[in-house]
Amino acid sequence: MIIDFHTHAFPQRIAEKAMRNLAHTAGGVRPNHNGTAEDLLRVVRDGGADRAVVLNIATNEKQQHNVNDFAIETNRTFGGALIAFGSVYPGSESAFEELDRLKAAGIRGIKLHPDYQHFFVEEERFFPLYRRIGELGFITVFHAGIDIGYPEPVHCTPQGLAQILPQFSGAPVVAAHMGGWMMWKEVQEHLCGKDVYLDTAFSAGRMPPHYAREIIRLHGADRILLGSDMPWGNTAEEISFVRSLDLTDQETAGILGENGARLLSLAGGSE
Fold this sequence. Notes:
The strands form two sheets. The protein has a five-stranded parallel β-sheet with strand order 4-5-6-7-8. The chain has a three-stranded parallel β-sheet with strand order 1-2-3. It is globular, with a radius of gyration of 17 Å. Helix content is about 40%, strand content about 10%. It has helices at about 10-25, 35-45, 65-80, 95-105, 115, 125-135, 160-165, 185-190, 210-220, 235-245, 250-265, and strands at about 5, 50-55, 80-85, 110, 140, 175, 195-200, 225. With about 270 residues, the protein is of the alpha/beta class. The protein contains eleven helices and eight strands. About 50% of the residues are buried.
């Protein structure tokens, strides 16, 4: 089983507009699907993966409920082929209520994007939120490192993320973009060896392979997840990138799907 653990999609009614705006903000990046969940699944499977995790982001408090409705509906519609995570807007008065709603609906994870959501991960005022996420057993995925659509400062550095990991009390945390896009030396210094997963999203053709090999060697292949950042990355290219790193067959199989299956408690995950 191959799992793309980092993808994005939008409700059909807003998909075209969302794709246009995000592509413009990112400097004219050409998307790899049309923004809908249906097209995401088609392209992911054409690229060689069996399933995908869809990471939704609440970019303001008013949007939070609708974003999570879309996540819940995606899971109902696609029967496990797409596994949608929810999101909360940090600082929202209803964030804790939304977490409870998502847990009751069977949502397995939460996506937080500190650049889009305008907060620094190490701000202590958000520690109660992290603790509640951990208590409920969610997988938490953070955008980590630079975002090409946003200027500095970086809101989720490897250093900042390392500081907050204890707040989750052992519940799984994933640092996207190999722990911090364009901050890979800092990843080696601050995150490698810590209790955190890293995903490969947006790495193929953008991350020097020697950094990927060094990080995997230092951190352990059992805590690396395949991710594309679809539609901004490409599932097939990220699979090829992982296979080009001269890892063992066991390490490669783990990154491409077994680690993700284990994290998601799916059949096919290694013990």
